[in-house]
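User: Can you predict the 3D structure of Tellurite resistance protein TerC? Sequence below.
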Amino acid sequence: MTVSPLIWLLTIIAIVGLLAFDYIFHVRKAHIPTIGEAAVWSAIYVGIALVFGVGVFALGGTTMGAEYFAGYVTEKALSVDNLFVFLVIMGAFAVPRKDQQKVLLFGITFAIISRSGMIAIGAVAIDRLSFAFYIFGAILLYTAVKMIRDEAKEGDPDAEEKDSFFVRLVKKVLPATDEYDGDKLFTIENGKRVLTPMLLVMIAIAGTDLLFALDSIPAIFGLTQNTYIVFTATAFSLLGLRQLYFLIDGLLDRLVYLSYGLSIILAFIGVKLVLHALHTNELFFVNGGEPLDVPEVTTGLSLTVIISVLVVTVLVSLLSPKGRAQAAVNNAHREAVAYVEMTYAGFEARRDAMYERMLEDEKTLQGLPARFQDIVVSEQNVRELLADAHRIHEMRVGFNDRGERSDEQPEGLIVTRTDGTIATDPNGNVVTVSEEEAALARSQAKRREREEARAAHSVARKG
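Assistant: Sure. Here are the predicted structure tokens for Tellurite resistance protein TerC:
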């Protein structure tokens, strides 16, 4: 089916309109979206993608519709994997939780623009270069092997160092400050105009988006050569990614085998591309430049394999010992925070039930095999959180036994402030109270320095 220029124009206008709507009504004013907000808007964006797919089925036929859904599911799965990297980058730059939406929307917008360019290049390559399918297939097979090798190296002590090296490299090349100035991209420090971490993290995410495109674009061209389907499936898979990030934030860590599932999918599509290249072969050194009689993978089979692999991957991740270990760490963290921050205004029965759940999660942590202990360590200050919860519980039980009540906190708490809330860094990670106070003091000093520099600059201009 040939897509008219009018349909192309209307589609692009609709996608740009969705991005503009997202910015104006959701991102322009910094805030942390609730789970309900993220769930509603994630459902809306997925619904839009599904309705569009139904329209493709109705107007373009069964083959075109199946190609769209196969491409959409594949690109959506790859985009979820990309969220892991976004988490690492925003954690490395300590992006305040309320500003993460803006960073994500920038990344999504840049991804759509950059991948549109690569789609155009890929379409031209397929049309004019007969061996393009061999190249795309090789890229996907290499990526699949690399993903498995990288996953096998998980826990490598050099991995975190590589991430921090990238951050240091960006800061070394560009004059920048370590302190955020709201959501501004530039600020004044020591009388000089410098980049803020907000701009640096956007540059970092833009760079990773380009790398992601090298995998995702060949993957979807392996499922369909219809440029319109490639573009729309890619664009709709990226729209709503910001809301999905906040919706499955706590679930991301539990998808411990997602990389293996994606590597299988990429390898499958890579083989499909190579088979297609052999079927339409024109390279003189392969079978004398004549096509080979090899089987080709149908779109229906591709869609079945992709969905089946993803379902199995998610189930194995959630039910495996490693997945359950990660779930235990996440649950212990959540229950400890909830218990520590609950006051006497809450129901005592609810507090007791919460404490019992926390104890069960803690027993699970203590019984984890040695190979899973790194998960406990990587969950920042979960042991300190549990220790504070135990001290608070002992004091509360003592008061209850005497028929008294008190909102006071016991001495020696590590991560609990005097008002009973949890100390956190700008990214929402639990830190010790002393670390929070030191970071706040540094931030206030930097803020005073910027204000003084701006005042001096203003006086100099007037003079």
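The beta strands are 186-189, 192-195. The first helix runs from residue 5 to 27.
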